[in-house]
Each structure stands twice: as structure tokens, then as C-alpha cells.
């Protein structure tokens, strides 16, 4: 065996503190061994034997392995359609967005002053969607097309109270229909599919009707028919949802023009690789009056303290934390990186470019249609954009196989029909190959059209879509935006509950391998063997790490994993004749998505109290279990708790709930404090979701990609999600899918695979212990400045700590906001603010941060405490000091006028002006693009698409 030098051990690269730093940090806590920290966990749940994982491999070895798996996939030319289309990612966008850590290591833009770049990109996304659909307000992004349709049904439910039927176009994408059916099961709606939607609206008491445009078969309903459907629907107070291909809308009538209330769909074909089904950003836009019940995030324009226009998340930001089970949806992480990619595709091509791409696709489809028609093939319709359905009695399988032999994947509709969908990447040779398979010859003739649809280029008129069409300009625009943001590539992001750890380059690289990036989710199984093997191995490793028996990778966010897990619990109770078991106990400290997901799964939320020390009030738990014994479906707890503590009561809690016939859901978002040390599936839990975009190194991407696998014990395995088109994706006994694609965000799974493969069992355990060490080290260093709110019985925290600012705020009037914004001046992203306790900051350093960075953070916090003392002592005016005025922009610090009681250097360089490689000090100073943003102003005057450039002039 070849011996690797230790620097080649990946865990040494992933874990921040060196061996000697680790010893010093341990000594500061009065400990001598890293293993001593394992004692922070209750003995009853601690696992000391090593995980059964393959030996850790090097970066070079994992890249080799993944190259091999990618080569086992045979993407061919994807002409299957069904909501996923071949597209050409502009290389300038691929390298400078998708593959650029400045974009992919950013967090959700809750701190808007350090997120102006990605907020602008998302505002462009909203403008693009709003322009193309004609509806005034578009959201920042949703999880995929299937869940976007289901979310639109949810909006309709909240607006029209009458009726209990969801009416679906028979030509709706089958995976969207299946996702809607899953949600409808939980909510008790009836789902009816029909082709003649006007007649169906007359027959059924519907509250929503969903039309697909173009339909799965390729057919485009004429505008006259769409208007008749909308008129009939509105007569009966029924909401009209249009599920539209955004590229087709460059040529078709905008849904607003024929009176649709909501438009939804996918933005995948705007330059986002197929990725075997995801991650891709879904979109939603709504008519006036519905904006306040929209799911997901919405970017709005406001102003900063200097009156400069500035972007921020508007309205429903973190609304689950406020409205909990009454929230409009459980969507938290969505697919931001992919929304940014899609928006940049539109910025780069502009309206003319997009229309040119759509025209070419349509023209190629018409040529193919003429060739096939000429050869006597029967076409389902002559009104199409890019997709044909050809009737070939009894020969469909044979023709699809023949096309595959020529390097093209077509859709096998049934024994008698084949679907053909043309994409941006379809070449002359592909068209010729397809024609040949059908015994036709491709000529210059064309056939078919867009029914009575027509559209002027009345979209994307804003300068941003008409300015950056050369690569030089585009590159500079992307760089300018990313320079406005603070991501992990600049410094530590100590966000509690978010696990902003390293996303290593060796983990990221393979997602761009063509074998992973270019495969269609409904490609035949024999051409997806690499993904099948990757999924099989990754599931096995996750099962081993969590102690569960079965894992489904389908949920494409943590909250979607929660929904999937709760649906499994529901399925289990129903199978046991316990349909009355609908109560879900949720501790008051739980993440807001828990309650929102429980409501979506049709459960009734009952809150369990917390004690003053933050732990679950076990007396209240006993009382609630007793009170709801016969209706108890489940308890949802986060472990370690959202207070950052390993509660000793966890095994007792599991026992109590099980005795009453309930199931235990452990929210696995904090798995970074358990991996290698304890296994929820073995300490009493029945189900968990994992956040691969936290614990398992998938980057946050500014708010997604999300990957939230659900893991269960054997008795819940029959109720994991499945998929209508891919039998291997889940059990037949399931309730259905929770996401459009069989394996959710499959395209980013190589990241977690590489992470586990390179860390191995020892590396994972060491990472967890170091995460605990780092949190305790920070807590200890800061205890004199900001007390740590909660700790376990041994005085230790888990992988994060809550700093209590409330007493300080009381005496000094300096708020958590002020401290969070002042940290920007010191070159840091703020910790999590006011979750789970209002008026506090929750710090999660993760194992990837070095001692140097931890010390820099602690010193900044200690210096901020000294600044607060000055305010308290009256040395600085309580309304004019570096804290209330933070963050300081370059424009402010260099302004001719300076009337503050502190110096410009104190404002902009509070940590000094020394040289150094680190963000925030001296030459590497990070300057926020805007000063403190006025959130309320932005919510009162909702502006959610690009404002005219004059708005930025002085
Ligand atoms: C404890 C906890 N549960 C659930 C979630 C939801 O995960 P996601 O944002 O991926 O939907 C989060 C996300 O921050 C979380 O911290």
C-alpha cells in the first residue's frame, strides 16, 4: 500500500484548527483530549465504536472514483422533454456563478447590507419572471416545477374558500400532478384531471384549475380556449394557475393576457444543467392582490440610511418563524444559486437573444414535424412550440431504442406513442437521426405553429437585460455583483443552525462532469447506472451515520424532508387504522418550518413548553402526551436542541411518546453535532431529515441548492416518497412524491458523496468533536463580554452557543441588530439573530474555522462590547455611535463632512489597519455596498422588480 503524506489527508484540510491549536484550545477549556468533548453527550446515546464506512480516500482518489461513476451515465442528447430540456449554460455564467465560491458559499440574504449582489441577481430573476408571465409580482424562487404547482394550489386555497376540488389539465406534467396529489391527500382535497376544462369547471366544485402551457404532449391550447377557461373559472370564483414553459412565453401570449391569476414553472432551461432532475429553480408570479400570500422569498427595493436604493428580502422573510403553522408555506431554503444562474442567462442573452433561441427551437421542431408528417407519421397536434407526440401503433419502444442507438433519448409515452422534444442544444445531426429512425428525411419544409398565440417582444426592456451581451461586460457585471457580497470565501459566517462549513473544491468539481450534469431525469435506467450506484452508496453511508434503516434522497430542502417524514408517519398510522392520530407535539423553541410542515401534512400542532434553561419542559410534555394520548401522531424535536444543548431527557422523551403510540421525528438539521458520536435512528427516533446543505458540505448557494433526505426506521420504510415515472425511486406502498424529480437535487449529491468518502469514519467523528470544541472555545472566550445563555449539565454547549444580549440591550439600548451590523465593519457576517430566542445571537463556528479566525471573531465581539460600554457610560451619544450607525460604507467614511463623535478610522477600520490575508482588516477590508437598510419602508412600498435606472441617481 502506498503511504500518503499527512497533508494529503483531506480531513486535515477540512478541519480548521491544527493539532497544536486543538491542544491549546482544549487546554483553555481545562481538557486534554478532543475525545473528552464526547462526554457533552448523554452516555445513553453516545456511540463509541467507529462507523462502518470505507477508509478515507484522498482528493485525487475521490475525483477518480466520481469520474468513473459519471462515465457510467450516458446522457445522450436529451429530447425527452417533460419539463426538462437541453440547454447551453454560457461558460461565463457556469464558471463565474455555478462554479464560483463567491456565489455558491454565500448564505441566504437575511443580512441585506452584505448581500446586495445576490439580491440584485434575484431581483433580475423576479423581473424576468414577471415580464414573461405578465403578472406584476414574482417570487425569488421555489424548489421545482412540481412543488411550485402545489404551492400555487395552496395560494388558491387561501384565497377562495369555496369548493374542495383541484382541477388539473390532463396534459399537466405527470410529476407535477403526482406532487399535487400528495399534498391533496394530506389536506383532504379531491384531484380531478380533465381535458375539457370548461366542461369540468361546470361539473365540479373546484377552487383552482391548473393549465399546462405547452402541455406535456406538446399541445398548445389556443388563447381563445385559455380565455374561455379563465372566464368560466372566474365566474365561479376559481383561481386560474398557468404552469408555463418560460422560454415558450417569449413567443406565446403572456398568461396575464388571458387572465391567469398565478403562473408557475421551472427556469431550468435558462442555462441550468439537467442535473438528472435538479437542483433547478421553480418560479411563481401572481396577480395584484395575491402578493401577500405568496410562498417562498420575495426581494424588494427599499432605501438605506443615506437614502440610497437598496435591496432586501420583503414581507414573508422568515415568516415560518412568526406565523409557524399558519405560515403560507414551509419553504425556507429554495434554489437560489440556480435562480441566479437562470437570471444571468437572461441578462446575457437579453430579450432578442432569448427570442432567437426560442425561434430556433421552434423552427427545428417545425422542420422535424414536416419530415415526420411527410413520412406518414401521425402527429397529435399541429399547435406546438418544441414538443411533438407521434403515434406509431405498436412500435414506440422499438423506435425509442433505435434513437438511443443513435445517441438520442426520446420519450416512450406508451406502446403506441413517442414524444420528441427539441432543446437549445439540439443539433442538425440529432434532428436527422430522429427523422431517420421514423423513416423520414429532414428537409427545409416546415409544418405547425403556435395556434393563435402571438407576442411582441414587450419583455426584459430594463437596461440590465440589454447591457451585458459581450463576455467582457458580463464577466465584469458578475464580478461587480459578487464583490458586493460577503460569502465564506471572505471570512467566517458564524450562523447558528446553518452550519456554514467548508465546501471543498474537490467536492464541488464533479458536479460539472457531463455524466452528472447532462443526464435527463427520465433517461432509461441502463443509461443512469452511475447515478444509481452513487445513490445506493450514499444512502448506505447515510444510513450508517444516522442509524436509520432506509433513506430517500428525494426531498429537495430540509423543510421538504420534514414534510416527507411527517407523511411517512401519517401513512404508518393510517395503515394501522389510526386515522385519528393527527396531533403533532412541537417544542416552543423549534424551527418555524417544523410547525409549517406539520400543518401541510394535515396535522394539528400542539406546543410543548420550554423551561427557563431552554430545555423541553418534561412535565408539560408528560401532560400533553396524556391529554392527546389517543390522537398523538408524533413529536418533532431538534437534537441537539435549537438552543445548542444536548438534552439528557431525549431517551425519556422517545419512551413517553412511543408508549402513547406516537412516533418520534428528530429534526436532523443539527446533525453536525452528532455525526460519528450518536445515531438518532438508534437512540429512539423513528424518522429524521438531514440537511446535506449543512452537515454534508453542499454549499448554501445564497439560499439553495437544498437537499433534505429523509431517513427512517424499517417500519416507516413503506411510506417513503416514490415517483410516478421512476419505479426504483421509492416503494409502491408510498403516498407519492414530494418533489418533481425522483432523486430531488441529484446533481449535487456528488458533493456529499465526496465529503463522506474523503473524511471517513474517523474524519467525521473528529469534525464533530472539533465543531463542539470551536463552539465551546468561542463561548468561553466571550463569557466575560456576552454571557452564553444555555449550557448542558456539564456546563458545555454542543456545536453552537447563544450569546445573550438582552440585559446589555436593556441598559445600553444597543440592540442585536446594532451588533450584527457592526460586525460587518469588523469584517464578519453576523451570527443568527433572534433565533431561537429574541434579542440573542446564535454562533455556530463549525469545525472548518481555524483558531486564528475564531480569535479574530472573539476579539471583534470583545471590542464591540467595549464600544457598548462607551455608549452606556454616555461617552458616545446613544443615537450617534459606531454601533447605531453601522455598517459604515466607503462613501460615508470618505465623505467630506464627518460630524460623528468617533473617528473615521474607528468607523471603518475598528480592528486596525494592518496588512494580512484576512477579510476585514487592513488592506483586505470588506466594504458593504450600502448602509443600514430601512426594512419597514420596503414593506410599505412594495417594489419587487428592477426599478428604473433613474431611481439610482442622486
Ligand atoms: C433546525 C432546522 N430545521 C429545519 C430547517 C429547514 O431546512 P431548509 O431551510 O433546508 O428547508 C432549518 C433551516 O435553517 C433548521 O435550522
In brief:
This protein has 29 helices and 26 strands. The chain is of the alpha/beta class and 954 residues long.
Feature tags:
954 residues, alpha/beta, seven-stranded mixed beta sheet, binds pyridoxal-5'-phosphate, Glycine dehydrogenase (decarboxylating), GDC_P
Task: Write up this protein.
With 954 residues, the chain is α/β, with parallel strands linked by helices. The protein contains 29 helices and 26 strands. The strands form six sheets. It has a seven-stranded mixed beta sheet with strand order 2-8-7-6-5-3-4, sandwiched between helices. A seven-stranded mixed beta sheet has the order 16-22-21-20-19-17-18, sandwiched between helices. Helix 8 (174-187) links the parallel strand 3 (165-169) and strand 4. Helix 4 (91-98) runs antiparallel to helix 12 and helix 9 packs parallel to helix 10. The longest helix has 39 residues, at 336-374. It binds pyridoxal-5'-phosphate. Residues 332-333, 497-498, 557-559, 591, 593, 638, 642, 667, 669, 691, 706, 708 line the site of pyridoxal-5'-phosphate.
Amino acid at each position: 500500500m502506498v503511504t500518503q503524506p499527512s497533508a494529503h489527508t483531506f480531513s486535515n484540510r477540512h478541519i480548521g484548527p491544527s493539532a497544536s491549536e486543538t491542544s491549546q484550545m482544549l487546554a483553555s477549556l481545562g481538557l486534554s483530549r478532543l475525545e473528552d468533548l464526547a462526554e457533552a453527550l448523554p452516555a445513553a446515546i453516545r456511540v463509541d465504536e467507529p462507523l462502518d464506512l470505507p477508509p478515507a480516500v484522498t482528493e485525487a482518489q475521490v475525483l477518480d472514483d466520481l469520474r468513473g461513476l459519471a462515465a457510467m451515465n450516458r446522457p445522450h442528447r436529451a429530447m425527452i422533454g417533460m419539463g426538462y430540456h437541453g440547454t447551453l449554460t454560457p461558460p461565463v455564467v457556469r464558471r463565474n456563478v455555478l462554479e464560483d465560491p463567491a456565489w455558491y458559499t454565500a448564505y441566504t440574504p437575511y443580512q441585506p447590507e452584505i448581500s446586495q449582489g445576490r439580491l440584485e441577481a434575484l431581483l433580475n430573476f423576479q423581473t424576468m419572471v414577471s415580464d414573461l408571465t405578465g403578472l406584476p409580482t414574482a417570487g425569488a424562487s421555489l424548489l421545482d416545477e412540481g412543488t411550485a404547482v402545489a404551492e400555487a394550489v395552496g395560494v388558491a386555497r387561501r384565497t377562495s374558500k369555496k369548493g374542495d376540488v383541484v382541477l388539473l389539465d390532463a396534459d399537466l406534467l405527470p410529476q407535477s400532478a403526482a406532487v399535487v396529489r400528495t399534498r391533496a391527500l394530506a389536506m383532504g382535497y379531491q384531484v380531478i384531471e380533465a381535458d375539457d376544462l370548461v366542461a369540468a369547471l361546470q361539473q365540479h366544485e373546484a377552487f383552482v384549475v391548473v393549465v399546462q402551457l405547452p402541455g406535456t404532449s406538446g399541445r398548445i391550447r389556443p388563447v381563445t380556449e385559455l380565455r374561455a377557461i379563465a372566464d368560466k373559472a372566474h365566474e365561479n370564483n376559481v383561481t386560474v394557475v398557468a404552469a408555463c414553459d418560460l422560454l415558450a412565453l417569449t413567443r406565446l401570449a403572456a398568461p396575464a393576457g388571458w387572465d391567469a391569476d398565478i403562473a408557475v414553472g421551472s427556469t431550468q432551461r435558462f442555462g441550468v444543467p439537467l442535473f438528472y432532475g435538479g437542483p433547478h429553480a421553480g418560479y411563481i408570479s401572481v396577480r395584484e392582490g395575491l402578493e401577500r400570500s405568496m410562498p417562498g422569498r420575495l426581494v424588494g427595493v427599499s432605501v438605506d440610511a443615506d437614502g440610497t436604493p437598496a435591496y432586501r428580502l420583503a414581507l414573508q422573510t422568515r415568516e415560518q418563524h412568526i406565523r409557524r403553522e399558519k405560515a403560507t408555506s414551509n419553504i425556507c431554503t429554495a434554489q437560489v444559486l440556480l435562480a441566479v444562474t437562470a437570471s444571468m442567462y437572461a441578462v446575457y442573452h437579453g430579450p432578442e437573444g432569448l427570442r432567437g433561441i426560442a425561434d430556433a427551437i421552434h423552427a427545428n421542431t417545425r422542420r422535424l414535424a414536416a419530415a415526420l408528417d411527410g413520412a406518414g407519421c401521425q402527429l397529435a397536434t399541429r399547435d406546438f412550440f418544441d414538443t411533438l407526440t407521434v403515434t406509431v401503433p405498436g412500435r414506440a419502444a422499438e423506435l425509442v431504442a433505435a434513437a438511443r442507438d443513435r445517441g438520442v433519448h426520446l420519450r416512450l409515452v406508451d406502446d403506441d406513442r413517442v414524444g420528441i422534444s427539441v432543446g437549445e442544444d439540439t443539433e442538425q445531426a440529432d434532428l436527422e437521426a430522429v427523422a431517420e429512425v421514423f423513416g423520414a428525411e429532414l428537409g427545409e419544409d416546415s409544418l405547425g405553429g403556435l395556434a393563435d398565440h402571438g407576442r411582441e417582444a414587450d419583455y426584459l426592456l430594463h437596461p440590465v437585460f440589454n447591457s451585458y451581451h459581450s463576455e467582457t461586460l458580463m464577466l465584469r457585471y458578475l464580478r461587480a455583483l459578487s464583490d458586493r457580497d460577503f460569502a465564506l470565501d471572505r471570512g467566517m459566517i458564524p450562523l447558528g443552525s446553518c452550519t456554514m462549513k467548508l465546501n471543498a473544491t474537490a467536492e464541488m468539481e464533479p458536479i460539472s462532469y457531463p455524466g452528472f450534469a447532462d443526464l435527463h431525469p427520465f433517461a432509461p435506467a441502463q443509461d443512469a447506472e452511475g447515478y444509481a450506484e452513487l445513490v445506493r452508496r450514499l444512502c448506505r453511508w447515510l444510513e450508517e451515520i444516522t442509524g436509520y434503516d432506509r433513506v430517500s434522497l428525494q426531498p429537495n430542502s430540509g423543510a421538504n424532508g420534514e414534510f416527507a417524514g411527517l407523511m411517512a408517519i401519517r401513512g404508518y398510522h393510517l395503515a394501522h387504522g389510526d386515522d385519528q392520530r393527527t396531533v403533532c407535539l412541537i417544542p416552543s423553541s423549534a424551527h418555524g418550518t417544523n410547525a409549517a410542515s406539520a400543518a401541510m401534512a394535515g396535522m394539528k400542532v400542539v406546543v410543548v413548553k420550554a423551561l427557563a434553561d431552554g430545555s423541553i419542559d418534561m412535565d408539560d410534555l408528560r401532560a400533553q402526551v396524556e391529554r392527546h394520548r389517543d390522537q398523538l401522531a408524533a413529536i418533532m424535536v431538534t437534537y441537539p436542541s435549537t438552543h445548542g444543548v444536548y438534552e439528557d431527557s431525549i431517551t425519556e422523551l422517545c419512551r413517553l411518546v412511543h408508549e402513547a403510540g406516537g412516533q418520534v421525528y428528530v429534526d436532523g438539521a443539527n446533525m453536525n453535532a452528532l455525526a460519528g458520536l450518536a445515531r438518532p435512528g438508534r437512540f429512539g427516533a423513528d424518522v429524521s431529515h438531514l440537511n446535506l446543505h449543512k452537515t454534508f458540505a453542499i454549499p448554501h448557494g445564497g439560499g439553495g441548492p437544498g437537499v433534505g433526505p429523509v431517513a427512517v426506521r424499517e417500519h416507516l420504510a413503506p411510506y417513503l416518497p416514490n415517483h410516478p415515472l421512476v419505479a426504483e425511486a421509492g416503494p409502491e406502498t408510498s403516498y407519492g412524491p414530494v418533489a418533481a424529480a425522483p432523486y430531488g437535487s441529484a446533481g449535487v449529491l456528488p458533493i456529499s458523496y465526496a465529503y463522506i468518502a474523503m473524511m471517513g469514519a474517523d474524519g467525521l467523528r473528529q469534525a464533530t468533536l472539533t465543531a463542539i470544541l470551536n463552539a465551546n472555545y468561542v463561548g468561553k472566550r466571550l463569557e466575560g463580554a456576552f454571557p452564553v445563555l444555555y449550557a448542558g449539565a456539564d456546563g458545555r454547549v454542543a456545536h453552537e452557543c447563544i450569546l445573550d444580549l438582552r440585559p446589555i440591550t436593556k441598559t445600553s439600548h444597543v440592540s442585536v441588530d446594532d451588533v450584527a451590523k457592526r460586525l460587518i465593519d469588523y469584517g464578519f457576517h453576523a451570527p443568527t439573530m433572534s433565533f431561537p430566542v429574541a434579542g440573542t445571537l446564535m454562533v455556530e463556528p463549525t469545525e472548518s474555522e481555524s483558531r486564528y479566525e475564531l480569535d479574530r471573531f472573539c476579539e471583534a465581539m470583545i471590542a464591540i462590547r467595549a464600544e457598548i460600554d462607551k455608549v452606556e457610560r454616555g461617552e458616545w451619544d446613544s443615537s450617534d455611535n459606531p454601533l447605531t450607525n453601522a455598517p459604515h460604507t466607503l462613501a460615508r467614511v470618505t465623505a467630506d463632512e464627518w460630524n460623528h463623535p468617533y473617528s473615521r478610522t474607528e468607523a471603518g477600520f475598528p480592528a486596525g489597519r494592518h496588512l494580512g490575508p484576512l477579510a476585514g482588516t487592513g488592506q483586505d477590508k470588506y466594504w458593504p455596498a450600502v448602509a443600514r437598510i430601512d426594512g419597514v419602508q420596503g414593506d410599505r412600498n412594495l417594489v419587487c422588480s428592477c426599478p428604473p435606472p433613474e431611481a439610482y441617481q442622486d
